[in-house]
Records
---
Amino acid sequence: GESVGLHLPTLSVQEGDNSIINCAYSNSASDYFIWYKQESGKGPQFIIDIRSNMDKRQGQRVTVLLNKTVKHLSLQIAATQPGDSAVYFCAENYFGNEKLTFGTGTRLTIIP
Amino acid sequence: ETGVTQTPRHLVMGMTNKKSLKCEQHLGHNAMYWYKQSAKKPLELMFVYSLEERVENNSVPSRFSPECPNSSHLFLHLHTLQPEDSALYLCASSQDRRSTEAFFGQGTRLTVV
């Protein structure tokens, strides 16, 4: 069945360093992938998405890479800040389907 | 502040109680969602409404009953819940059901005793 998983449940990074959060997916028919950030006591917040016809997309301090060959997705956060501490979820879906499939999340902790 | 507001933030209810969760958005979005977030589990989609019509019911028990009276409001009516229903219930909205960007509320932390 469909599944979206993350390689590591927790990740600690020194403030100012870059961080990479990984995600594996199994549905080769997925049309797009999304990264969400969830801070403590808050709902998930959209960060960035990428369509399946792209390999890379950049936002403000974030880059998402998509490797369809190995069904792997990553979120790179540059020059991490304390405010980046949160749980990060990847999600995938295909057009015409309302049901986003979420992973279990990676908790990113930024060490001052 | 995402523009999606949920009330109450916390709710404790007995298994015989009836309560309702409320979600409100004034973003002009046409699609609204209920998700359940349990510890160490992925977010689970419960219901999807598009233009006030339910388009997805993801095999949710009947003790959860959604209501969408207009495009800005979404309710989740709860009755005879079980302790395993304790979780964070998140409401979200998006421009339409095909939009990739959903805006989430802060959630209602529900505890069933």
Note: Chain A touches chain B through 24 residues (CB under 8 Å).
---
Amino acid sequence: NAGVMQNPRHLVRRRGQEARLRCSPMKGHSHVYWYRQLPEEGLKFMVYLQKENIIDESGMPKERFSAEFPKEGPSILRIQQVVRGDSAAYFCASSPYDGSNTEAFFGQGTRLTVV
Amino acid sequence: ILNVEQSPQSLHVQEGDSTNFTCSFPSSNFYALHWYRWETAKSPEALFVMTLNGDEKKKGRISATLNTKEGYSYLYIKGSQPEDSATYLCAFLNTNAGKSTFGDGTTLTVKP
């Protein structure tokens, strides 16, 4: 059973371009979480999704950021018109249900650098 | 906004020392507390899932306790080894959300 897969591992974008980060959860997991780690900071929650539904996006910046978890395929975190402040490590985690009594399994992250 | 605080921020110990650090979280609407171990260049891995007041969990030399009434959890490492060097994260879940709120972590460095 493969773990949580994130790609790409490293992504470089110029200011104003779009960044697409992909997360394939573990087999059988229908809950996906995205976290961001800014330089010198801890993990900060961004968004929680179930298949085809956004459950909680309270940590997501209001503009330029969007996330989806379609019925088929990976979850996508999309950042439009990237700026230097978007440079961070973005981690995805998945769990089989709402995560209360089971730990989340993390991917290895995508490190986004905006130049 | 839920405040989850970990202390100390960093810790340097000698091989063989025992150590402990703290995670503080809101004492109301508690649902679960998770501890994760995060090694450099890897992804966080779960150590413990704690749900009941008074819970004590153990995995090898690492153990954790939980006090939900006062809102804290301790992580203990007995006889630290260099391979224990990592950042230890706690994550709090309350009854109203399926997401975890993470503390900023305690970074442990064990010197040989």
Note: The interface with chain A takes residues 31-32, 34, 36, 42-46, 49, 51, 89, 93, 97-105 of chain B (CB under 8 Å).
---
Amino acid sequence: DAGVIQSPRHEVTEMGQEVTLRCKPISGHNSLFWYRQTMMRGLELLIYFNNNVPIDDSGMPEDRFSAKMPNASFSTLKIQPSEPRDSAVYFCASSLFGGVYEQYFGPGTRLTVT
Amino acid sequence: DQQVKQNSPSLSVQEGRISILNCDYTNSMFDYFLWYKKYPAEGPTFLISISSIKDKNEDGRFTVFLNKSAKHLSLHIVPSQPGDSAVYFCAASARGGSNYKLTFGKGTLLTVNP
């Protein structure tokens, strides 16, 4: 079975550019999460979708960040404009029954903003 | 305010010995706990979980112990193998009501030496 798929795996961009990260959750999972991992803050939850609807975006750091889930098999996280402090690894995860049980993570996108 | 704490950033053990990774939590509403393992350049992978109605859960070489009164859990790996070298994250959730989040610790890097 395919796990969570993320693309691209690596992204290097210049400050001010738009960045779009993509995620395909596990088929049949109804919950999707975007996380950011940094050395200082660890794994931070950015946004949670349930049945394609954003439920909690309180972790999104600024208005420069936005996320969409147009259907059950695709989600995007967009940063516009990007800044060097956005450099991190971004993970997408999916699960059944909300997120309080096991969540299954994708391989992550390593973003570097210069 | 860190609700899930892994106070040891790193741990080194010899192959064949026991590895003990510790985790403390402060939120008394947490009633489900998970351990994830993460290799470099990969996403976290679910390892084992425990509900608050239990004090021990075992899966092969991995055992998780929960001490609710101390708000402490630990992961035991016996015997440790070089392939167990990874970052281990402790996570917790509160399953009641509309909760959906996993709260993660910052991780412990385990190195198993041959």
Note: The first strand of chain A starts at residue 5 and ends at 7.
---
Amino acid sequence: DGGITQSPKYLFRKEGQNVTLSCEQNLNHDAMYWYRQDPGQGLRLIYYSQIVNDFQKGDIAEGYSVSREKKESFPLTVTSAQKNPTAFYLCASTATRGAQPQHFGDGTRLSIL
Amino acid sequence: GDSVTQMEGPVTLSEEAFLTINCTYTATGYPSLFWYVQYPGEGLQLLLKATKADDKGSNKGFEATYRKETTSFHLEKGSVQVSDSAVYFCALFYNQGGKLIFGQGTELSVKP
């Protein structure tokens, strides 16, 4: 079955450490997205990528970085510059940017040790 | 700017009760409107959508009508089940910009 796989499901970060969240899709989608979800808030866009080797900042990109070296992969790195990284992170994809609906992974919950 | 506002949760109902989750929006253009559902520990799934004024989206017994005059897209279901317990997100979307703008989510808990 086609879909989006996020790993790990739970991740813990120490102070001053960078961590990378994985997102892989086998839907052959061009566009991929990273969202952050905090309790009582909607999803906020961190980064998105319309095509391989290209990505743009979303609304809350500070303290995060991404890469898009392969069509099926869009990893997110939470850097030590992100002072409040505890959240639920969701990856999504669409065939092209602007297409709907976005298909979502099951998320990664990041916590600070 | 564009925004989406949902009624605060949690909403707690008994099984077979009628559900309404309010959603209002502020938009500068003519967006499409969506309801997404998030079950515990999972990502979001599209529940229903409406692309223009007066359109009604429906799926799995849920309905919502795109009301331009009241800038609303309220989610309704006539008889909820325990399995409907989840967080529901209202969102607006512009084809040109390709960006989804989400409300804060409303948690629904249905008791047997």
Note: The interface with chain B takes residues 4, 6, 31, 40-45, 90, 92, 97-102, 104-107 of chain A (CB under 8 Å).
